[in-house]
# Entry
Amino acid sequence: MFGAESNTFSNIFTYLGLPLSRELAAELDAVVMGVPYDLATTGRSGTRFGPTGIRQASSQLRWEAKRFPWRFALSERFKVQDYGDLDFEEGNSDEMLALVQAHASRILAAGKKLVTLGGDHFISLPLLRAVHETHGQVALLHFDAHTDTEASDAKYNHGAMFYHADKEGLYDPAASVQVGIRTEYDYDTHPMTVLDASWVNNHSTEQVTERIKSVIGERPVYLSFDIDCLDPAFAPGTGTPVAGGLTSDRALQIIRSLGDLNIVGMDLMEVSPAYDHADVTSLAAATLVLEMLYLLASQKKV
# Structure
């Protein structure tokens, strides 16, 4: 071996310096895939650069053999590779939809776990379509400042994709939970369980995760994390920041405690590096993704 694989400044091409490949070998456990798309944004654009920002920031996580406070090294238990970014024609949202669904379906059908880096949150719609092909209707565990259930007929809207996903039957609202919400929604008719940011911030991690698990139960679950779930103090680099959110530590604690859930896929969306400061948001996102991978690895039977 020439040089150190753990340094924080050389050859920062992939997430954590993982191998770059689209081969789905039998021994592979999980895939990290980027989707640099932001044409469905309703506020500040720039999340097309999110996957690159997250990968660059992940270099700061490469030196620690075992992610604190896990007691094993990810590489010892879980084989992960970077799938690279999906490449679609500029401005062609329909091609993006088709490509995301096709590639995600291929990965999931091969029995691999998929963690997707966005991009704006609209990308979760084709991802859920792919998950539905393999796993059927799932529970949705959604971390966000917004419910993203706007009743809109707009074809591309990162605030309406879970409205459309519900109409398509991709997830079961009665078994789904939204965490960190702190913007307007219809309190009387909203179909999902909401653990708003104030409630989460005033209850223990154990109480939060107990509530999540009581709603989801044993259903297969898709975890979708919008970085604006975090307070702007911890994630300024996003298109629609909302004060009063979670700390990065609280979010990491919650994800770390979800080992009992049957998680079939995850995404991390809405990082917009142009509005970031000192890579604070990208680093938070990269760390959350690493926590997701450790969570999946902890569930693997060894």
Notes: The chain is about 30% helix and 15% strand.
